[in-house]
Amino acid sequence: MGRATFLVLATILAAGCVSALTRVEIMLSARDLPDYDICCSSPVLPPDGYAVVYFAPSNLDDYFEEGTTTILSNNNNPNWPEVFSFNVAEGNTTARLRAVLWDSDVDDDDYMGSAEINIADIISAFGHSVTRSLQGAPKGDGKVVVTARVNGTLVHVPVDSGFRHARHLNYKSLNTRT
Ligand SMILES: *[C@@H]1O[C@H](CO)[C@@H](O)[C@H](O)[C@H]1NC(C)=O
Ligand SMILES: *[C@@H]1O[C@H](CO)[C@@H](O)[C@H](O)[C@H]1NC(C)=O
Ligand SMILES: [Ca+2]
Ligand SMILES: [Ca+2]
Asked: What residue ranges define each of the domains in the chain, with the CATH number in brackets?
């Protein structure tokens, strides 16, 4: 556990708001995204994909936007480098993550579908990444792959991406969310 991570957790525990939090840090990839770029009678090209990540602490429809990945251009199988962090009360079975995928374009971006994943499924997937089919994808197919580090323990990382390259977009805990 990094010093900063330890201090954040120690502060939360010392404040007595939460007895035990499981820290989940996730990275997203997509697989088999269809081509979404059509230009000027040229062939259809792979998308310039990015993901918007939302977090719902409970099973109410109360999603918070956590952040957005970088755009990985011309790629049907992007491995986004960003890390998104969530603190989940131990044993919580209702917290969920939603990833909404877009193809960046000069004009309006194309919606590529979304996937919802229970944080509990990510926590219990030790040793494996979690894969979900994209829902509502206009061109069908496509999957979202979640790789995770739980309480500082690496679960799985795709070959050509890694936590060491990651930018930490969001380290605030649920307790400090306003
Ligand atoms: C993560 O750490 C917290 C605090 O030590 C602990 O209560 C919890 O059980 C851990 N979660 C997992 C999934 O190991
Ligand atoms: C955990 O579960 C309760 C509902 O039982 C919910 O109110 C709470 O916000 C949940 N979320 C997290 C992240 O612990
Ligand atoms: Ca497009
Ligand atoms: Ca595009």
From this structure: 3-176 (2.60.40.150)
